[in-house]
Amino acid sequence: MIAPYTRNWSANELPNFAGRNYHIEVKGEVETSATNLLPKLTLRRPQGINPRILLLDLTIESEGGLGGQVVMLKKVAYTRPTSGNAYDEADILFEGEIIERIKVGHPKTVAKRAKQKTSKKSARKAAKKPSSKKKTAKKAKKKKATRKKRL
Fold this sequence. Notes:
By secondary structure, the chain is α+β, with helices and mostly antiparallel strands. The chain is built from two helices and seven strands. The chain has two domains: 6-105; 110-150. Strand 6 and strand 7 (97-103) form a beta hairpin.
């Protein structure tokens, strides 16, 4: 069987709010040929030689009943608790063949990306805003000038 069309894959190892427990989230979109077909990701058994690579099997299962023959993309996700920084890659397999290889983002890299985005935004805002020091200096000069006129 030919592997289905897939897109928008991501894999991240994220901590909970306390930062003690971690979980890995693998997400993507899979094309199905009918409305009653549902894509699923399951852990591959045996896992493989390299413990740093998470192997997931992609299957397309019928939910039962009649489904309309409509080709559409459906979201698929897999979550699993981890110890934190447990995986470097996630491989998606369809009928034993790797169809997608995803680099896993770790908490520090995810936080670093978010920090970089916010620092770029703040740099843009700082470039647009005039300096408040200049305004206060101008106000001080005006006050001195009005005092001299009064005397």
